[in-house]
Automatic annotation (TrEMBL):
One of its GO terms (molecular function) is hydrolase activity. It comes from the Bacteria. Keywords: Copper, Hydrolase, Metal-binding, Transferase, Zinc. Belongs to the purine nucleoside phosphorylase YfiH/LACC1 family. Pfam families: Cu-oxidase_4. It catalyses: adenosine + H2O + H(+) = inosine + NH4(+); S-methyl-5'-thioadenosine + phosphate = 5-(methylsulfanyl)-alpha-D-ribose 1-phosphate + adenine; adenosine + phosphate = alpha-D-ribose 1-phosphate + adenine; inosine + phosphate = alpha-D-ribose 1-phosphate + hypoxanthine. InterPro entries: Cu_polyphenol_OxRdtase (IPR003730), Cu_polyphenol_OxRdtase_sf (IPR038371), Cytotoxic_necrot_fac-like_cat (IPR011324). Purine nucleoside enzyme that catalyzes the phosphorolysis of adenosine and inosine nucleosides, yielding D-ribose 1-phosphate and the respective free bases, adenine and hypoxanthine. Also catalyzes the phosphorolysis of S-methyl-5'-thioadenosine into adenine and S-methyl-5-thio-alpha-D-ribose 1-phosphate. Also has adenosine deaminase activity. This is Purine nucleoside phosphorylase.
Amino acid sequence: MTSTLGARAPRLRGARALFTGRDGGVSTGDHASLNLARHVRDDDAAVIENRSRLAAEIGAPLVFVDQVHSADVHVLPATGEAPVVTADAIVTGREDVALAIMVADCLPVLLSDPVSGVIAVAHAGRKGLLGGVLEATVAAMTELGARPGDLTASIGPAICGACYEVPEDMRADAAARIPATASTTTWGTPALDLRAGAVAILQGEGFAQDAIDADHPCTLEDERFFSYRRSATTGRFAGVLRRA
Ligand SMILES: [Zn+2]
């Protein structure tokens, strides 16, 4: 896919999807340039312009949520205005809006059922993943008519299991809930592989093995993306999804 915002298009079925990077926006300094978050001390006018460019790119108004590392899922009203609420996942069957989820090391997870037309985006960091945000998102999609066996997923750029260092007890706690998350850094210390954990959860939810696209860069290693671990003052990029 060609995109003026440097997006890497995942192989989702039934939806148009993209992951933004740092290029293509108007923010400067630590937020250069396509920062999409309003809570990270960037110039608000710049963020509004960046969001406007992204909406033009995807061809529909963007719906964001105020993300708080919860497992709360926001199902959009069937028509009309989509209010900004506090949640970490958004679900809809609507075609007139695009869903956006912001990250800078956490997993941006995009989900689409090409049969029912139900789509979703989710923000899954350590806390959200362990809290069940992906299971809650799939449950909300199912309630709108999606079937797990029809679902496709793309898990975008995020910090990898060889970089995401955590204390030993944190790794043990995570592995007790999702064994696939246990990992080790390249320098030999305890780490978490959130991507492997997300794949395991989606497979457990009934996704077909070939329906999950998880081959995306590590945000800490790849400077095309914002990374909170690289710099605490930074922007957020987004996974964006619109029903095709
Ligand atoms: Zn890495």
